[in-house]
Fold this sequence. Notes:
With 301 residues, this protein is of the alpha+beta class. The protein has 2 domains: 82 residues; 150 residues, Thrombin, subunit H (Beta Barrel). It contains 2 helices and 12 strands. Strands 1-2-5-4-3-12 form a 6-stranded antiparallel barrel. The chain has a 6-stranded antiparallel β-barrel with strand order 6-7-8-11-10-9. Strand 1 and strand 2 form a beta hairpin. The relative contact order is 0.10.
Amino acid sequence: MKPLGYGRAVAQPLRQLAHRFAFGALVVGSVGLMIATRFDVVPVTDLRTAIADASTPALELFSRPVSSLTGLTDRIGTLTDLAAENARLTEQNERLRHWEQVALRLAAENTALRRQLGVVPDPEQRFLSARILADTGGPFVRTLLISAGARDGMARDGIAVTSAGLVGRVIQVGETSSRLLLLSDLNSRVPVTVETPDGAAQRAILAGDNSPRPALAYLPPHVMPEVGARVVTSGEGGIFPPGLAVGRVISVEEGQIRVEPFVDWRRLDFVRILLGIELHPEGAPEVSPALPVAPAPARSQ
């Protein structure tokens, strides 16, 4: 029988040998697994799939508490945001209630004064609401496809607006859909009026150039609106009705005046199309244009 010390004497060199080559063996094994995985060696792929299948229940079990905690944190954050949003909306609602009463009083006063002066009432406006289906524009065109067409009563040159302001006009009408030309499109020309420092309203043309901020054209050289001046439609040309909110002057640099539309293009989901607007009824006398007439832009296809 060999003494106990003999076994220890044999095991000691083996342990040292294993420690010496363990790192190298692991590196070689890792590289081998990477190569086998890269070339889709069937046994390795099957082994990896089996390990993933076996570990899935455990991973799901351990992930549930984390998911629950994350969901709870999100709900707490949402409740906090809702409380702040509710307080903001409550305050806003109170302000709107006040302005609603002011608007009703002014509307009644306006109606009474119009009746006394014998003012011919404005023609009744029809409108359609439509959802934005797709952005069909490209590098040189800014158009939108909407979910209303001829079967819904849509008509060419209908005016697209939102609660914020003017969006554009209808240029093509299909049976179930239509296409809008945005006011930022290169072919868009919108007659507008812009506030001036002396309080007057100067007529101009809002000319699209495919940028988010179209430019004002045909302003007299001595007229220079201030940044923040409000821009609305003038009604010239008989397509856009007067008084529609368009935007504000955002910059006046190097003789170029840029306007930032009130409409947020990134959050445009629905539009309202104004129809049946007759600004120049039949039999009305012709009026000479107050602005230089620009060449008619080519219509977008």
